[in-house]
Amino acid sequence: MKLPLLLGAAAIATVALISSKSSVQGTQDDRFDPTVEVVNPVVELPIELVHAQPFELATPERHTWRVEQPSFSSGLVLVLEADPAGLMPRQVAEPVLYVGDQTAQRINTGVPSGQLVVLVPDLTLADLADAPIFFGTAMLPEQVDAATIAAELNAARSLGVDGPGAARVGQVTDATVYSALDLDDLFFQVSYLIEEFSPMERDLIEGFRVTRYSFK
Amino acid sequence: MRNLPNPVGALIVSAALTTVVSASDLKLDGQTSLTKDVGTTLQVDLTGNAGLNAWLLIDFTAGPASLFGESIPLGLTPQLTVVPMGQTDGNGLVSLALPLPTNPALAGTQFFAVGTLRDAADPNGFDFSNGADLTLTAPAPGAFVDTELAGNSLAIRPFFENVRAVNAGSTLEVSIDPLDHPTLVGQAVDIYITDPQDAAGWDANPALVQVGPLGVTTVTVAATGVQNNTWLVDNGGLVGPTGTDLSRGYDVIIDVDQDGQLSAGDLIDGYGDAAGIHVVRDTTLPGPYSVIEATYSGGTFFGQNTFYPANIAELGVLPLVVISHGNGHNYQWYDHIGNHLASYGFVVMSHQNNTVPGIETASTTTLTNTDAFLGNLDTIEGGVLEGHVDGNNITWMGHSRGGEGVARAYDRLFDGQFVPSNFTINDITLVSSIAPTDFLGVNSANPHGVNYHLWVGQADQDVTGCASSNIAQSFHLLDRASNQSQSISLMGVGHAWFHNGGGFAWATGPNLIGQGPTHAIVRGYVLPLIKYHMLDDYAARDFLTRQYESFSPPSVVADAPGVEVDLQFQDGVENGNYVIDDFQTNTAVDLASSGAVVSSNMLAYSEGTYDDGNTTFTNIGTDTFNGFTMGSAQDTTRGIVFTHNASQDFDLTFDIPAADQDFSNFRDLSFRACQVTRHGNTIAQLGDAEFFVELVDGNGNASLLSVFATGAGVVEPYQRTSCGTGIGWGNEFETFRLPLEGFTVDDPAFDLTDVDKVVFRFGPNFGSSVGRYGLDDIELTSN
Question: How far is B527 from chain A (nearest CA, A)?
């Protein structure tokens, strides 16, 4: 369940670069220039499906990653693989991740592993096969509305981005349903998936496993 | 007072008695009969014909007696004293500020005075004025000379800075300007450092008890010069604060009559509620309390990492600091702030922040987590915090997207778009943004009138500050703050070093300092910042207002040697500032906001919005406001920019409106200034730039101070590349506060009650020979 060799090599190189940066804090390193903007994320930041698993919530939540903020209580948890350089969290606008006609909610950063864990509200395994997975124009997801999604999806399709296909979905699916109280509980459960795919994100993982109080 | 000169005495003896109507007029403090306290200064005004030599005759009896054949209202006793007054001016006026004796035993003594002018047109050659009398009184209890005494000597004029705070272990000096205290010249006085008392305390207990290890310092006041009247009174031995206090206060007294009591005529620094000087702790070091860290969740996006003193049960109600992390960051990455502040008695809660969707969602999690925290104190940690968190005194700190989020959260409260259950907008004491983005712009990312603070790392590789993106220009938020605001900008500091999560530093540029030294600065600065705003700590203000080069925590200096730290500070409107020009109104280049007429021979002078006109910092000449990133095109922040070369001296002059010329009730002349990045003149003298400020009073007396009197000059932009061609990052504003009293040092004639012009002087004779600057927020401050 790995990306093609070329992308994988790039990912490894980037991880090495990030590691070296981390170890030399306090020194200047001009090899990586994050001010370089990605012009066409659909093409420049390919992303592959590596895991799919359904979830259900006992308490509906709002999908805050688009303007309409629809309520949802089910969907899919996906693990996607991409060049970690493209996943590096930014404070400025980032390419928005789409799965079909929905914005995906990132749960981890995917750095440095290149393994990004997301949830997609109201998406089913059946629909996933035909849902293109792509990075669209850099902006804030909360400012993305249905019209934007449609336009981004059309643009991606015109560039030849298709869904992963039924066969791929079949290969990567774990049909065990996450059954959670709410998103917080789902994140607690998904923390083990993150630990499997992106184990270096220790603070994030542990932050999902803390004592739960019943807030009023 | 000097004895009568012999030639005049001879004339007295030989004169014959006549009665002449006087043409001249004498006034003492504008009156002909008055009472006045010993130790004060008497204003003497004598008017007559222009261009005549004048004297003031003073005696103990009223006469009348004959002089030059003329009857004058003086006894002409052997105690008669003659004081030369100089020459009448073109309007026939000559004035004298006459210091009265300080001895309280003289209370009740009456003096009589007559002015005289050597006037050839007068039949006897002298024009005698009317008589005037003065009765000395004792000061009311407590009416001592309450003045600033303590501080540090300076190498340049005004040669001394009066301060609120010194670091523990640092030397302390006391200084007076003998021109302000002429009666003390030649006199031996004792200088005491005592435990502080307020006015009531001193009135009830005036005994002076020295506490400094050097003992009482006895000095003799020299006739001239602040430098000759600056004395070391402590060599670092004063005891610093205990407990969670930021500082320990002391009062400083010059015991003029050396009686060991605070008595009339003595000088005291600290007679009021605030102590005269504060010895502050190293603010980078932890406080006295052990800290408990708790990490828990109250549900979706209610993950919280809370720090509180282990002995909180004994501590009453503590202020709350809420931290909202940035995008891709984690709520557990602010231990360096949480542990530090909690060790000084604050409760700090860092929460999961929903930053990836955007700023609106981030602001929601700031609001909901604050509300939920306050609403669940009986649940969190078994209720240990219940009754110990002050929900009426909250600071919001946010990082990057979270830094914009906290401003947006405040804006939503301001607009009534979010109504919390457990706090109100009035409970937000301070909003502090660390390297914030500006996605939402002026209408939403807006701190309005809350106390606002900004942190910026000039090496930030994410929220870069480059002209190419308004989203990445943090200073927008600072200039939107409409009331009290301040910033700290750190050269060599990257985006990620503000948290403790490690990983990619997001840092580029020269002299990178790393995470550890960055955290030392954060700890050293956040404590006084929070103390100042949340606990009204008097001494903490010095950390925010004085140049870093003048005052900073010693461990920061040790941990980050050579780091450049630049501060801006603007008082709120409630402090009664007088704005000479903030360039927001009266936008013509020749008219200031105050109505002052502006004249200038500066080159390439322009007034406009502080928004770089294109997408780079490249110096192309046509981009008038190159390097300015204080606002977007939608913002209203304005200022001026100008150039000077070495061909001559240049000036920028503000003619102060007549009604506003009394500067004596203000403490400082404040303004912010920057060098313009990548400009040839900036590059030509790369380093701290110098210019001077001159005040000119109504009599034409001019007095100059260099910006270096604040401890440093105008810093050059951070020498970082990219964002176009050339070297140099965004224009780096700093606030300069020149003490108005400093303009009177060694210049007794200068009149702060009648300041006609404020002149900024540049050029070969006034510091740096060339330069291009931004200048803004020129105002008088009271605090």
Answer: 24
